[in-house]
UniProtKB/TrEMBL annotation:
Keyword Disulfide bond in annotation: yes
Residue span, Immunoglobulin domain: 30-132, 325-410
InterPro entries: Cell_adhesion_signaling, Ig-like_dom_sf, Ig-like_fold, Ig_sub
Membrane topology, record value: Single-pass type I membrane protein
Name of the protein in question: CADM4-like protein
Highest classification ranks of the organism: Eukaryota, Metazoa, Spiralia, Lophotrochozoa, Mollusca
Length: 478
């Protein structure tokens, strides 16, 4: 009872004292400049004022003045917390001059902690808490789901970008990927990225892994990976009789044999539909085995060709993409420009062609100008854009996109700018081609095309991706 009375008396006295400014009697120091999340932070308050010290108050002002709590420590032996209901005393420990926040979390980032002596606002000093934390999400390999497959053609130069967002500081990224040529980490705001570049040969299929490590989580690395699948063309086909390889020219005695096998391997492995047998100009079979049901007979003699075709589709390749095309309106007698607008693919070098579909005339380049359009020029046209990848050691691949659009040639609808004695009358009149203009000789006029708007957008075709296939063929003569 006695001590309670004392406290009340003392609070009244201190609050009533007036101070004119920060009196510099309190300094505050922090055990860490940056505290890793999950660890504790000890703040020490140092009072050098001349008044007798009764109480120290710690205030967590939160960040941006979002007040969190006050902890008032009475400076009597032993120092005790001046009771305040609702304060969770499991979150901190204290001594007369220190406050230890037991488990600093990222919620404490930028908390502003103030220490005041004797409840004198002007004596306060503050520190801003800096928490280091690890990113909450694992790193990401841009464009690929972790655990996915990355297809590349053997010997080509490939690269992947790993990216990690969040954490303070940003995580350390490293790659484990073939010969591992890594760029320096690139920081962009709250994200860090690192590119790895590599090349690999057939049968070296392996995993490329990006690891994000962080001092706050020393033994818990986060990773993302792709399985690299190295594609290569089918081998030159070999003929086999009874599982034994034979040369390209063999004599077969009638009736002794019914099947010849064409053998080839690659990645992807050739499937049944990848094999074609041709005799002369005729397709005589598909699949790896050519059959003569009932045996080879007179008339079966000749030259047979086995062709193996597989498609190698690398992950990093994408075709250029055309913008949606309008139905174009043109005015007879005027010049008109067709333009193919597209976004580049990878690789960026693009070949474009404009084709007049009704008679097959084509022009190369992104645009074509018709100098005096007439009705015969109207009709369906096509833009084709194409890129080509030419990796070392493999055949080229072509990515294409096409878009068709109609050109309408309108009869000459005109706007007349009328001027009199070279002074423009500034009036615009729309008239028809057939109208009698009826101006006298002193009036000159200028004819300008009317802008015909078309809002009729027409995406006629989705982009197509087409790979030219590697063909390896070998002849067999019977
Ligand atoms: C408190 O501050 C005074 C004056 O700045 C300094 O001399 C003293 O060492 C400090 N004490 C502690 C415990 O930091
Ligand atoms: C610290 O706080 C976090 C979040 O509240 C909690 O998950 C973790 O278990 C705490 N750690 C300790 C050591 O108390
Ligand atoms: C911390 O809070 C105190 C009390 O509200 C304020 O006077 C001080 O300016 C704040 N410090 C910073 C850096 O915001
Ligand atoms: C990675 O590959 C892409 C596409 O091939 C290319 O545009 C980019 O410049 C490459 N980056 C590096 C760092 O090599
Ligand atoms: C990143 O690595 C460096 C050098 O090993 C280390 O000093 C730093 O603390 C690490 N950063 C993080 C966030 O772990
Ligand atoms: C296709 O049509 C255009 C316009 O009618 C004409 O100029 C061009 O000569 C034609 N080309 C062929 C190959 O017929």
């Amino acid at each position: 009872m006695l001590s309670l009375n004392l406290r009340i008396t003392f609070v009244v006295i201190v609050v009533c004292r007036m101070y004119a400014g920060a009196d510099g009697s309190v300094t505050i120091s922090s055990s860490e400049v940056t505290v890793p999340e999950g660890l504790s932070l000890t703040l020490t308050c140092n009072y050098t004022g001349i008044d007798k010290l009764y109480v120290i108050r710690w205030t967590n002002n939160g960040k941006d003045s979002g007040h969190k709590y006050d902890i008032t420590i009475e400076q009597s032996e032993p120092c005790t917390i001046f009771g305040k209901p609702g304060l969770d005393k499991t979150l901190f420990t204290y001594t007369c001059f220190t406050l230890t926040i037991l488990n600093v979390t990222r919620d404490n980032q930028n908390d502003n902690l103030t220490c005041q002596a004797n409840l004198n606002f002007n004596s306060g000093n503050s520190v801003i808490v800096s928490v280091s934390d690890a990113p909450s999400d694992p790193p990401v390999i841009e464009g690929y789901a972790s655990g996915g497959t990355y297809n590349m053609i053997e010997n080509s130069i490939e690269n992947l970008t790993c990216s990690s967002s969040g954490g303070n500081p940003l995580a350390n990224l490293t790659w484990s990927c073939f010969n591992n040529q890594m760029s320096s980490p690139i920081e962009q705001g709250r994200t860090v990225k690192r590119v790895v570049q590599w090349t690999a040969r057939r049968n070296e299929n392996a995993r490329c892994t990006c690891t994000a490590s962080h001092a706050v989580r020393p033994n818990k690395h986060q990773t993302a990976f792709v399985n690299v699948n190295i594609l290569y063309s089918p081998s030159t086909p070999l003929f086999k009789l009874d599982n034994t390889a034979v040369g390209s020219s063999i004599r077969i005695v009638s009736d002794t044999i019914q099947t010849v096998e064409c053998d080839s391997s690659g990645n992807p492995y050739p499937t049944t539909s990848d094999f074609t047998w041709i005799k002369g100009t005729n397709v005589v079979g598909t699949g790896p085995v050519l059959n003569w049901p009932g045996g080879v007979m007179v008339g079966d003699d000749g030259s047979y060709t086995c062709t193996v075709e597989t498609t190698l589709t690398p992950s990093d390749q994408n075709p250029p993409k055309l913008q949606t095309f309008t139905r174009e309106s043109a005015l007879e007698g005027y010049s008109f420009m067709i333009q193919c607008v597209y976004s580049v693919g990878n690789p960026a070098r693009t070949k474009s062609t404009i084709t007049r579909l009704f008679n097959g005339t084509s022009w190369s380049g992104d645009s074509h100008t018709m100098h005096s359009i007439n009705r015969a020029d109207a009709g369906l046209h096509r833009c084709t854009v194409e890129n080509t990848m030419d990796p070392t050691g493999a055949d080229t691949q072509t990515g294409t996109d096409t878009a068709d659009f109609e050109i309408n040639a309108h009869p000459d609808l005109q706007t007349i700018t009328v001027s009199y004695d070279e002074i423009s009358l500034d009036s615009y009149t729309e008239i028809q081609e057939s109208d009698n203009l009826g101006f006298n000789a002193a009036v000159t006029y200028e004819i300008m095309p009317v802008e015909k708007e078309s809002t009729d957008y027409d995406a006629l075709k989705d982009p197509v991706y087409k790979n030219t296939k590697r063909k390896n063929s070998m002849q067999k003569n019977l």
